Amino acid sequence: xxxxxxxxxxxxKAHDTQASFQAARLLADTDAVFSVVHVQEPIxxxxxxxxxxDVLARTRHEIQEQLNQNAKELPGAKAYLISGHAGxxxxxxxxxxxxxxxxxxxxxxxxxxxxxxxxxxxxxHHAKCSVHVIR
Length: 135
Fold this sequence. Notes:
Layout: E1 2-8, H1 18-27, E2 28-40, H2 45-48, H3 53-71, E3 78-83, H4 86-96, E4 101-105, H5 112-116, H6 119-126, E5 130-134
Parallel strand pairs: 1-2, 1-4, 2-3, 4-5
Helix pairs in contact: 4-6
Protein name: Universal stress protein
Domain UspA: 1-135
Pfam families: Usp
């Protein structure tokens, strides 16, 4: 099975992480390490300049706390809040941390995904490790 598993999560009420966490537990070796990652998209400079620094810091802290709570679902999981474009950031994190399996939830693609692609699509096509997509 897998020894170093990455589980990217979206932190909103519409996304249920339980299926991804269940798959991670099933695919994990007995001494597997879990990384739970949330990617925070960068705020455009013209908008960020209008947001007070304490608001940005407080928001990031709240997101990290919510991510830490999510990570408790997996034994010994470490939570990482990273920034960037979701698909690219997930692949980069996997490459930099010797991940051997990414377990990624996906939505049903819509018309806009034909031109832009989805996070899952980018990860599946660019990851150097196994990718399990949960629907």
